[in-house]
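Hi all, posting the design record for the shared folder.

TITLE: backbone redesign
STEP: 1 of 1
STRUCTURE INPUT:
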């Protein structure tokens, strides 16, 4: 008998042939379980039509089921939109009731995903911001006004609704042929040494999309989602240590303590469903030129700690990225943690992301600048740029030009020419090279205005009321 992987769907036990560990959860829900309330839209994690809830170890996450695999939910409990009414013996959940009351659906295609996002929002311990919770859900026909009103009604009306039975123990999640799922770092490193060609999978928000785009599936996966040692955050020492498997949502929370200026930048990283599943190391290891995290970590002087079975080493983030989608990670190594040094005295941090759409879009340009302001001039200047060429990188020539200069409007506008000479933007669907040069230079003006507390031209926060 071939091995099976087990999870729950709407509180029913499901057993699936383990050879399907890399199959998308969405396909199983719709085509095998015939729970067709969950919709398929973009199939790349961007529209939210396929959202479900996944519960494991007391924690419930919003998940885009199109970019989650069956292997990743082994041992967990999954709930699709049908599970809500099953659970409530046919009654509507407050999220469903509010969508009806507020007339927040027309064709209804996006509605199941929006309902699941509202359920997730209603379960938060502090009142969630509707636009933030719904930022990963696209609606093509209703318009967002009534959907936001539905969110408010839902969060006012929701009492406690226990959605999940006592879950299956995580010990039932295990390794399957071609899908290794170690529970400790030692075993993960052993498997990495034995199978250097295996595909390392964590949140899968980038990889699973790539498999779909290329029509491929890896023959061997090393899944790190169960390695507890990789999920630790240590903020007790002078450095902030963030385990490789820490989710983007958790990483953002701990970065915002010492660096609150990055809040506007980081809130545009991804939707709640992406942030709850993508990991900090995954974001760095993909070495995407449009990753938002790498340039921020570069100007914070962060390091990537990596290990193989016999040794470890520490690599600055700015040299860890070696080119387009390439890093300096060796074939037998795994990232174990990201280490961010303490905030220096008098540090100023400026973080800008320019994209065609405000929420959850790929950057046309990221510009990150940090310096210490000493006697009115910039010292220890670090500048990183992303989104405009084949990799995120520091700009040492421009940094040197900034050293010892005051960050005034006049000086920053003078420095714009140096910045222009230091970058080599490309033209692609997100912007022309000429546009990117102009934006990069204009952001120096923005920096000088921000430095002087200019609030009249604050273009960054636009919230519907
Ligand atoms: Fe669009 Fe999954 S189908 S996010
Ligand atoms: Fe039609 Fe939202 S109601 S896409």
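Okay, here is what came back for every position:
SEQUENCE:
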């Amino acid at each position: 008998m071939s091995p099976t992987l087990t999870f729950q769907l709407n509180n029913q036990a499901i057993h699936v042939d383990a050879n399907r560990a890399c199959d998308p959860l969405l396909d199983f829900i719709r085509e095998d379980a015939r729970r067709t309330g969950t919709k398929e839209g973009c199939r790349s994690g961007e529209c939210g039509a396929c959202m479900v809830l996944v519960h494991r170890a007391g924690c419930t996450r919003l998940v885009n089921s199109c970019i989650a695999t069956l292997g990743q939910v082994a041992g967990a409990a999954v709930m699709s939109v049908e599970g809500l009414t099953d659970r409530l013996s046919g009654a509507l959940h407050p999220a469903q009731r509010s969508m009806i009351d507020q007339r927040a659906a027309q064709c209804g295609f996006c509605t199941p995903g929006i309902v699941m996002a509202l359920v997730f929002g209603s379960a938060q311990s502090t009142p969630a911001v509707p636009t933030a919770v719904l930022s990963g859900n696209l609606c093509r026909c209703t318009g967002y006004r009534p959907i936001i009103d539905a969110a408010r009604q839902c969060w006012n009306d929701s009492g406690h609704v226990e959605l999940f039975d006592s879950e299956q123990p995580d010990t039932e999640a295990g390794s399957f042929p071609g899908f290794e799922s170690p529970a400790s770092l030692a075993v993960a490193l052993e498997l990495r040494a034995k199978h250097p060609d295996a595909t390392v999978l964590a949140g899968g928000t980038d990889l699973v999309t790539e498999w779909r785009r290329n029509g491929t599936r890896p023959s061997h996966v090393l899944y790190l989602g169960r390695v507890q040692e990789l999920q630790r955050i240590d903020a007790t020492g002078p450095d902030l240590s963030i385990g490789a498997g820490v989710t983007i949502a958790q990483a953002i929370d701990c970065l915002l303590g010492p660096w609150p200026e990055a809040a506007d930048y980081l809130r545009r990283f991804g939707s709640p469903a992406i942030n709850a599943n993508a990991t900090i190391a995954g974001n760095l290891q993909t070495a995407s030129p449009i990753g938002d995290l790498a340039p921020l970590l570069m100007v914070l002087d962060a390091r990537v700690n990596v290990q193989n079975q016999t040794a470890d080493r520490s690599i600055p983030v700015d040299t860890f990225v070696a080119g387009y989608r390439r890093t300096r990670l060796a074939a037998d190594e795994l990232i174990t943690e990201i280490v961010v040094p303490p905030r220096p005295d008098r540090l100023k941090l400026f973080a800008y992301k320019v994209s065609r759409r405000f929420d959850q879009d790929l950057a046309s340009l990221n510009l990150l600048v940090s310096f210490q302001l000493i006697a009115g001039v910039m010292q220890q200047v670090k500048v990183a740029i992303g989104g405009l060429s084949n990799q995120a990188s520091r700009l040492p020539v421009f940094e040197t030009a900034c050293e010892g200069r005051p960050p005034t409007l006049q000086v920053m506008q003078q420095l714009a020419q140096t910045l222009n000479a230091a970058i080599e933007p490309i033209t692609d669907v997100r912007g022309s090279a000429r546009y990117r040069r102009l934006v990069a230079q204009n952001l120096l003006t923005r920096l000088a205005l921000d430095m002087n507390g200019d609030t009249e031209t604050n273009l960054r926060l636009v919230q519907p009321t």
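COMMENT: The CA atoms of residues 378 and 402 lie 7 Å apart.
Let me know if anyone wants the other runs.
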